[in-house]
Structure formats: C-alpha cells, structure tokens
Amino acid sequence: MKFIFDSDTWQEIYGGIRKNKTRTVITIIGVLWGIFLLVTLLGASRGLENNFKNIFGDFATNSVFVWSQRTELPFKGFQKGRRLRLTTNDVEILKREYKEIKFIAPRSQSNSAITRGFKTGNFNISGDLPVLDKVQKKDLVYGRFLNENDIKLKAKVCVIELEIYEQLFDKNEDPVGEMVNIGNISYKVIGVYKNGNISFDGSAAYIPFTTFQQVFNRANRISWMMITANEGVDILQMEKDLLLTLKNIHKVDPEDKKAFGSANLAVEIGKVTGFLTGMQFLTWFVGIATLIAGVFAIGNILLITVKERTKEIGIRRAIGATPIEIRRQVVLESVFLTTVAGMLGIIFGGFVLFLLDYFLGSGPDPTLVNPTVNIPIILFAFLILIVLGTLIGLIPAYMATLVKPIDALRDE
Amino acid sequence: MIRINNLHKSYPIGKDSLHVLKGIDLHIKEGEFVSIMGSSGSGKSTLLNIVGLLDEHDEGDYFLNGQEIKNLNEKKGAVLRNKFLGFVFQSFNLISYKTALENVSLPLYYKGVSRKERQKIALEYLDKVGLKDWASHLPNELSGGQKQRVAIARALVTQPKVVLADEPTGALDSTTTDSVMDLLKDINNEGMTVFVITHEEEVADQTKRIVRLKDGIIISDTINVQRNPVKTV
Ligand SMILES: Nc1ncnc2c1ncn2[C@@H]1O[C@H](COP(=O)(O)OP(=O)(O)OP(=O)(O)O)[C@@H](O)[C@H]1O
Ligand SMILES: [Mg+2]
Questions:
Q1: How far apart are CA A190 and CA A89, in angstroms?
Q2: Minimal Cα–Cα distance from B74 to chain A, Å?
Q3: Which class does domain B30-53+73-227 fall in?
Q4: Do A311 and B109 touch (CB under 8 A)?
Q5: What is the B86 CA–ligand 1 centroid distance (Å)?
Q6: Residues of chain A positioned with their CB less than 8 A from the CB of B91
Q7: CB A323 within 8 A of CB B78
Q8: Could you give the ipTM of this predicted complex?
Q9: pLDDT of A129-165, one tens digit each?
Q10: Any bridge partners for residue B220, and if so which?
Q11: Residue B75 and residue A405: Cβ atoms within 8 Å?
Q12: SS3 category, B69
C-alpha cells in the first residue's frame, strides 16, 4: 500500500489525467451529477420532513381523540339512534383501566362573546385541565397556562389566544391580570398563547375545566377527550380497546360503528411520514442509480482510454513496468476520478442546499426547514463511491495488461 | 552474454502455424556490436523480441547473462527487462505527453529509484546523447534523430547489459542516421553489448559483426573486418 503515498504514483496519474482532459471532464460530470442529486434530494426531503415535524411538533404524536355520536344499532332494549354523552365518569374509568395512558384530557367546549370595555368578539371557549398543555404544548406569549389550583378553586381565570388578545388589547399592552367578560361573567386573564400550525380549538379562550362545567351547566358531561399513550404503546390497538370499553359502559352494541367517533393522530401523521419515507426512498434510488451510471461511465471511458493507450502501456511494460504496476495505475486513476468527482458533487450539492435554505427556508412559512444531509450518510455514499470506483477500474486495468507488450508495440 | 541454441518459433495462424525461426544458434559475448540483416519477414524482429523477453520461444535454449530463460511469467520478464535490457524502436516509442527528461527517467521509476536521483541520472544520459538543452521538450517538439537519441538515452539509463534496437535508423535520413550510429558506436566502445536489426548495408557496416537471416535460418555470421582491426571471435 506504500505506493498510494508515493508522490511519483500521483505524478504518473496526474500525467495520465491531464493528457485526457475531455474524458476527465466527462467522467467527472457523470459521477458529480449522481452524488449531487443524492445530496440535494436527500437534503430537500429532509427539509420537507423537518417542516412537517414542525407542523406536528407541539403534539404528542401517539394521541387519539374520542367523541360521542348516535348509535346505529339497537341493543339490550335500547332503540337505535340514541344520543350518547361522554362524561367525566368515562374519563375516570379509562384512566383507571388503562395503564398505558400517559395523559387523558376531557374537553368541554362552547362559544361565547368575549368583551373588554367596548371591544368584543365571538370566540371558542374551552374548559380544560392543565394536562392539555402536555398533550399539545401551548406556546405562551404572556403569563402562564391553567394549573391545578385554578381547577380546585374553580377560578375565574382564562388563557386567551393571541388573536383574541390582539382584538381586545392595545399593542404591547400587558394583558396578565386584566379582566375580560366571557358571557356576563368576569375572568382574569392569566396568559396569552399562540396557535401552532395545527389547532383543534381555533382561537379559543381556555378556562378551568371545573369552572366551565359549572358556568355552562354541563354537570359531568364533556364534549370529547384527548388521550395520549405512553411511548411504545400500539396506539391503534389501544384506540380499539378504548372504544370497546366505552361501548360497554354506555351499553352500546360492540359492533356499533357510529356510536363513538375517534381520530388517531399517529395514523394521520403516518400518512405524511409515509409520503416522506417514499420520497427519501425515491431519492436514494435515483441518486444511487445515477451514481452507478456515473461510475459505469468512468469505467467505460477508462476502458476506451486504455485501448487508446495500448501503445503507451506497451512501452511502459517494455521498459520494465510489471503488470501489477500498470493495473494499479489504472485502478488508482479510476478511484481518483470518482473521488474528485464525488467531492465536487458533495460540495455543489451542499452549495445548492445552502441556496435552498436561503430562499425557501426562511420567512414566516418556510417550505423547507433546515435542509441538511447527515455527514455519516455522505461518508457512506462516498465510501460506496470509492469502492465502486475501484471495482469498475479493475475491468480496464485487466484489459490494460491483456495485450502482450510486443503486440502493443508492433508498428501500425 | 546471450547464448541461443537451436531456437524455434512458430506463430499460430488459424489452424496452421507459421514456422518463423527454424533452429537459430547464436552466441553474443559481452561488448559485442552485432547487426542482423535479412529480407522482410525473415524473422529478425521475432528473434530480437525473444532475446528481449518480449516474446517466448517454442524450442531450444536461451541463456541471458548465464540465466536460463524458460517459462518466464510477466512479472519476472518485466524485472529482467528493466535490469538487463534496453530497447530502441524504429518508431521511437516515446510517451507523447512526457518531456524528454521524463521519458528518460521512466525506466528508473519502475526500478524504484527516488525522484531526485532519477532526475539527476536522466539528465546525465540526456547530456551524453547531446540533448541536455532539450530536457523539458515534448517528443513532438524534437526531430526524428533527436527523438531516437532520447530513446537511446532511455535505453541506457538503467545501465543494462544489452541494448536491443529494432531498425533504429529506419525512420531517419542519412545525416541523422549517422549521428545515431555514432552514438551506438560510442556506447559500444564503452563496453555495452549492442544488438541492432537493420536493412541498410551502411548501418550494418558500422557494426563489428553481421548476422544474415533468411527464412528463419542464419545463412552467414561474419566479422566486419573494417571495424575489427584485430581479429577475434
Ligand atoms: N504475432 C504474430 N502472429 C503471427 N505472425 C507473426 C507474428 N509476428 C510476426 N509474424 C510473422 O512472422 C514472420 C516474421 O516476422 P518478423 O517481424 O520477425 O520479420 P522481420 O524480419 O522483422 O521483417 P521486417 O524486416 O519487415 O521487419 C512474418 O511473416 C510475420 O508475418
Ligand atoms: Mg521487423
């Protein structure tokens, strides 16, 4: 292996490469294009993925939402079409029966006018427990979210969305501690939050769950619930089990498909990430296919040049080059070309990603977020490239020594 | 130096084979200056290629510097060529994208001589053939005679035992032919064994021994009296 570090070896290779400028450029372009595509596409799809992650980012993704509807089947003396109601009792039972549940948040919702002085607007009002902040992280601009104390005291406090704040308050006015009217009851504003990309509640004012039940006269009835499972739990199975338990509690036919509605966040996200995985797969496929094509082009052109250089190779052998020395040189030329092309491709790809990030990755609504490629992936692709370069170089290297020196040197 | 006994060589042509060398006996001692003459197709190049380890013989014995040449693999052949033999070709066979100096130093590269040493030795030999000032020129910037002198410098640079030249003046006019032959005579006078193929009587006349080949057989092997004031062999 000493020859690799021998400057003379490289001198010889440099000579060979410089002599064949066109083929050098062509081969380099082939491989360069392949690795360039790979880097750019991988980076772009990573950027898209990051963007989706951002959208779903504030959600605990293994969550399922459950609400009640009407039955579609008669059961144990009940008529079909019976209106069902979820209650806090259901929440308690589920919490008790399912150890896999990490958070369970009963939701009670309505809408109402919110007034402050002469300013007013109609908004969603949601009665919630502090745990909501764990299921969907609230991005607080001012103050704090609801806490256990608010629940216990049935406090008249509210956390409002930025849009509500903007309608009711002056710019830069500190809303914390200010009073607003919801319906005709006065609440103290304890916080302002900002909605993320996905919101189920719209621009809502959150008030303590207990307060809501009392004020809106809901007793123990709730609108729906959000359930988050522990890490690693099969959320689809849990969704089925939960529905069965609820049907059992409410005396509903287990086969009844309409009685309760549910949505599984994991499934929805899975659709998007499935698309992304598909795209990454396609990227790898296209990139590697192009790379292989590029490497083959190198092998092919080396083969042609080896034929063109039959005479030169014959001369070298006549003056004492062993077949191994000749083959080594051809293989090294191949490896050198692929390596240089690969590096250039990575540099160009990186540059294009930089441009993509610059033009598409900033602003309030970026298409690509942080389009990057993992260094290990690049190193891996690079390694593959060198291996392919070596393998493909072996063919012309073998061809180079196939012709006997006398045949190579024969005039004409 | 070179001892050949009853050497045969045939080339397969389709199903038949062409019997080119039909029992050659030749003994060349160290320091001789031998030319081979003969009509086209008589087997001169074939003989020289076998002597030069570029080709293998079918039958008979060949000893180079006392070593029997038999079943030589490519690698051994390359090493022996590099060590014992220097080649000069009719068409020069310089590498077109290398300068005169690089061409001359190439055999030393394969011999494993260090870069600095190579440059120094190669320049010495270029000087010897009178082309020191042309060291950095590419072959296509040189005249035919100059190219052949570079090729001779390349053949000599590894200090071989024998210089083999297949029609070294075949592509040259009479003045450059003379300069090339003077060079070959000089190196022979320094003790080098020189073995040339030629078509030209004037060239053969300048060597010390003339071997004539016809249809693969040596028909005459004479001492050139003009060049050998004292009779030997
Ligand atoms: N590799 C080969 N395969 C088949 N036939 C060959 C081969 N090399 C040489 N020959 C034949 O062998 C014969 C002798 O060839 P050779 O080259 O030795 O002749 P030569 O004496 O050098 O002729 P010239 O003066 O034209 O160079 C010729 O008939 C040639 O066609
Ligand atoms: Mg010939």
A1: 29
A2: 7
A3: alpha beta
A4: no
A5: 21
A6: 411
A7: yes
A8: 0.89
A9: 898 888 778 888 889 998 888 899 888 999 999 888 8
A10: B212
A11: no
A12: coil
Ligand 1 atom 10: the closest Cα is on which residue? B11
What's the length of chain B?
A: 233
A272-277 long-range contacts, Cβ below 8 Å, gap at least 24?
A272/A52, A272/A56, A273/A49, A273/A52, A276/A45, A276/A48, A276/A49, A276/A52
Cβ-based neighbours of A12, under 8 Å, separated by 6 or more: A329, B109
Sheet-wide strand order for B2-13:
B16-28, B2-13, B59-64, B67-68
Segments making up each domain of chain B, as ranges? 30-53+73-227
Residues of A in contact with B110 (CB under 8 A): 316, 319-322, 325
**Contact state of A318 with B81 under an 8 Å Cβ cutoff:** yes
Burial class from Cβ neighbours inside 10 Å (0-12, 13-18, 19+) for residue A375 reads exposed
Is the CB of residue B40 below 6 angstroms from any atom belonging to ligand 1? yes
CA Rg, chain A, in Å? 34
Q: Does the predicted TM-score (pTM) go above 0.90?
A: no
Q: Helices A88-97 and A235-249 meet at what angle, rounded to 10?
A: 130
Q: Where are the domains of chain A?
A: 2-56+270-410, 70-95+230-258, 101-228
**Ligand 1 atom 22 nearest Cα:** B45
Q: Which of B19, B39, B45 to mutate to test the pocket of ligand 1 (most atoms within 8 A of CB)?
A: B45
State the angle between helix axes of A21-56 and A323-360 in degrees (0 to 180), rounded to the nearest 10: 40
Q: Which atom of ligand 1 is nearest to the CA of B213?
A: 21
Unique residue bearing structure tokens 């320091």: B31
Chain centre to alpha carbon of residue A174: 36
**Whose structure tokens read 């050949």?**
B4
pLDDT interval class at A334 (50, 70, 90): confident
A95, A147 Cβ separation under 8 angstroms: no
DSSP string across A272-292 = HHHHHHHHHHHHHHHHHHHHH
Structure tokens at A114: 């919110």
